[in-house]
Amino acid sequence: DPAPASPLLQNLNPEQLAAVTLPAGNALILAGAGSGKTRVLTTRIAWLLQTGQVSPGGILAVTFTNKAAKEMMARLTAMLPINTRGMWIGTFHGLCNRFLRAHWKLAGLPSTFQILDTQDQLSAIKRLMKQFNVDEERFPAKQTQWFIAGAKEDGLRPRDVEVRSDDDRKKVELYQLYEDQCQREGVVDFGELMLRSYELLRDNDPVREHYQRRFRHILIDEFQDTNRLQYAWIKMLAGHTVEGRFVPGDNSVLAVGDDDQSIYAFRGARVGNMADFVGEFGVAHQIKLEQNYRSYSNILDSANALISHNKKRLGKNLRTDQGPGEPVRVYESTSDFAEAQWMVEEMRQLVRDGIERKEMAVLYRSNAQSRVIETALFNAAVPYRVYGGLRFFERAEIKHALAYLRLLENKDDDTSFLRVVNFPPRGIGARSIEQLQDAARAAGRSLHDAVAAVGGKAGANLSAFVAKIDVLREQTQGLSLREIIELVLQHSGLIEHYRSEREGADRIENLEELVNAAESFVTQEGFGRDAVAMPVDELRQSPASQGLDPNLPITDEPLVPDAETGETMSPLAAFLTHAALESGDNQAQAGQDAVQLMTVHAAKGLEFDCVFITGMEEGLFPHENSLSDHESLEEERRLMYVAITRARQRLYLSHSQTRMLHGQTRYNVKSRFFDELPEAALKWLTPKNQGFAPSAFGYGAGYASTRGGSYGSKESFASPPVPPQKAAPSHGLRSGMQVFHNKFGEGTVLALEGSGDDARAQVNFPRHGIKWLALSVAKLTPV
Ligand code: ATP
Ligand code: MG
C-alpha cells in the first residue's frame, strides 16, 4: 500500500483506514469492544476537517457521556489547530439542550427553562399524585415515572398513548397533569429535552431544513443503545419521510456500535435500530473491525467465551496480537467486607508495581455495593473517586443550594420552591404548605406567586421566605457566578445550618466545592461573561455551509443572544443546566491520582489498566430481576462482556459468600458467569468450588475439608479440573418444591447448588422476590 499521506492516518489498520476515509454516504461500523470504533470516529472527524470536506459547524457527533465528548474535543484539538466550538459534539441530551436553548421560543419554552433530573422528576410526580389523591399503593410514583419516561422514549404524548385499561387511563391522565405542571413551572425532564427537540424539527420546516443543510456529517457512537426517539431524531436531521417511507438526504451518517454491548434495553434502547439503519439509510458501506487493541488475550478470550453463550447475536470476531498477559484472577471471600479488604491489599501491590491509581477501576452491578468498598478505601487512605451513583450534583446539600439558585432564575420552579421553603427549617409546616398549594392551584399560579393568599403566622413565614428569595435576586444582579453562589450559600442559611449539624463538615466542604465547580465552569467552558462571540461569519463563508438560511440564528454559543430580542442565557442559567446534565465529575479532583469506582453501565466506552469486577454472585450479577427471563439474562451477559473488556492488562473477578445488602445479610453463590469463562485464562486465588465432592478426583478422604484447609501460598495453587457436582443432597429439597421460611413466608424453590455446609437454594418468595439462601443457616421447611 502507498503510505497514507496524512499523519492523522498513521497508526490505523487497513479496515480502520478505510472507515476513516470513506467517501460521503451512510455507513455502519459494527465491531467488538476495543477494536478502535471510537478512535475511528474521532479520526474521521479530524480527517474530514483537514481535507476541507466540512467545516467545524457542519459536524454533529453524538457520544455516550459528557466525559466522552470532552475527550473527543481534546483529541481533536490535539490533532488539528481548529476551533472546536462550532462543532456539535455531545450526548443526545446535551445536544438537544443546546438546540432548545437556541429555539426556546419556537419550542414553547421560557428562555430560562431548567432541567429536572430524575430525582426532581420523581418528587414532582409524588407531589402531583398527592395533590390529586392518587392511590400510591396502586400507582407507585416510580412506576408512573417509568411510564412517562417510556412514553417519551417512544415519542408519545399523552394523547398518543394507547389506552387498554382503566389503569392505563389513569396513568395517561397523570402524564397529562405532569406535562401541564412542568410547562407551568418552566422545567423539562431528560425525556422532554429529546422529545421537544424532535417535535420542533418535525413540525417546523425552516428549522429542520436549516439543520439538515448545516450538519453535513452526523456521527453516532454506541449506536446499539439508541432508543426509538433518538433514532427518529437522527432521521429528522438526515432525510425526510414520504408517504410513510424514509428517504435519506445527502448528509452522511456514520453509525458505530456493537450489538454485544447493548445494555440499556431496560431503558428503551433498541438494538434493532442497527438493522433499521442499514435498511432505511441504504447503507452502502459496512465495515468490520476485528483486531482488538485494548486487552491481552486472557482477557479477550474470557470476553469472547462468555458472550458466545448468548443466542441473539449478529456475530463478530475479535482477535489480538498481544500475548496472553496475566491470567484473570478470581477471588472468593467470606464477606463483602473481606472482599473490599482484599481489593485494597491488591491495589497496594499494583501501586508498588508502578500502576497509577487512576488506571484502576472497581466495577459493580449496583450502586448499593459501593459503600463497603468506599469505606475500605477510605480507611486505608487510598484516594478514590465515584462516578455515577450519587453524583456530586445529586447530593442533598448541593441540591438545596441549586434549588435556591434555580429560584433566582425562575421563581415559578415549584419543585425547587418546595425543596427549600422550609430548609433550613423556618417554621413552615406541612399544613401551611398544603394550604399554599391549594391556593396556588385555585389561582392557577406558582407557589411563589400565591403566598399572599395564606394568612396567619404561616402566611407571614411564607412571605418572609419569598421576600428573601426576591431580595437575593436583587442583590445578585451584576455579580459574577462565583459571587452569586457565595452570597446564596451565606444568605440562604445553608452554611449556618450545616455548621450546627454533627456531620455537617462534609456537607460544607461539598458546598465549597460547588463554588469551585462554578469557577472552573466559567474558566474552562468559556461560559463566562466575556466569552468570545463565535465565528459565525466564518461558518457562513465556508463552502460546506453554503445555503444556510440567513434568517435563522446559528447557535454555536450557548451565550449567543436571541436574534430578535438580544436575550442571552446568564452564566448562572448555563451553570444550572450544566449541573443537571453533567455527570457531576468533580473538576477539582480530576487531576488527582485516584482509584475509579463506578457501575458497569457507567464504564461503557472507557478503559483501564486494571479492572476489578466485584460481587460476582447469583442475584447480584446476574441481577436477581433477570434470573427468570432469558432476554434479561442475555442483557446481563452483555453487561458482563462490557465489564471484562474495560481491562487492558489485569482483570480481577471476586465474589463473596455473604453480603450485607439493603440491610439484610445475603448468602450468595458465585455467579454462573464463572462457568462460562475459559479455565485456561483464569487463576483461582482461593480454592475453586469449595465443597465439591473430592472423591470424584480420587484424592481420597483426607481432602474432604476444603474450607480453611492449607493450600500453601496462593500463588502456587493450581486448580484441578472440576467435575460437575453430583453429591447427593442431604437437605431433601428439590426444585419446584413449596417451602416456608419464617421471615419470607412461602416460596418456590427455583434452584439448588452445593452440598453439605455449602448447600444453597434459590427461592422465589412472592412477597419478597427471589433470594438465594444458605441451607445451613436458613430454615426452610417443605409445605
Ligand atoms: P468500546 O467498544 O469499548 O467502546 P472501541 O471499539 O471504541 O471500544 P477504542 O476505545 O476506540 O475502541 O480503542 C480501544 C483502544 O485501542 C484505545 O486505547 C485506542 O487508542 C487503541 N487503538 C485503536 N486502534 C488502534 C491502532 N490501530 N493502533 C494502536 N492502538 C489502537
Ligand atoms: Mg468506544
TrEMBL record:
InterPro entries: DExx_box_DNA_helicase_dom_sf, DNA_helicase_UvrD-like_C, DNA_helicase_UvrD/REP, P-loop_NTPase, UvrD-like_ATP-bd. GO terms for molecular function: DNA helicase activity; hydrolase activity. Keywords: ATP-binding, DNA-binding, Helicase, Hydrolase, Isomerase, Nucleotide-binding. Residues 710-732 are annotated as: Disordered. Residues 297-605 form the UvrD-like helicase C-terminal domain. Its EC number is 5.6.2.4. It catalyses: ATP + H2O = ADP + phosphate + H(+); Couples ATP hydrolysis with the unwinding of duplex DNA by translocating in the 3'-5' direction. Coiled coil: none annotated. Residues 10-296 form the UvrD-like helicase ATP-binding domain. Pfam families: PcrA_UvrD_tudor, UvrD-helicase, UvrD_C. ATP binds at residues 31-38. CDD domains: DEXQc_UvrD, SF1_C_UvrD. Belongs to the helicase family. UvrD subfamily. This is DNA 3'-5' helicase. It comes from Variovorax soli.
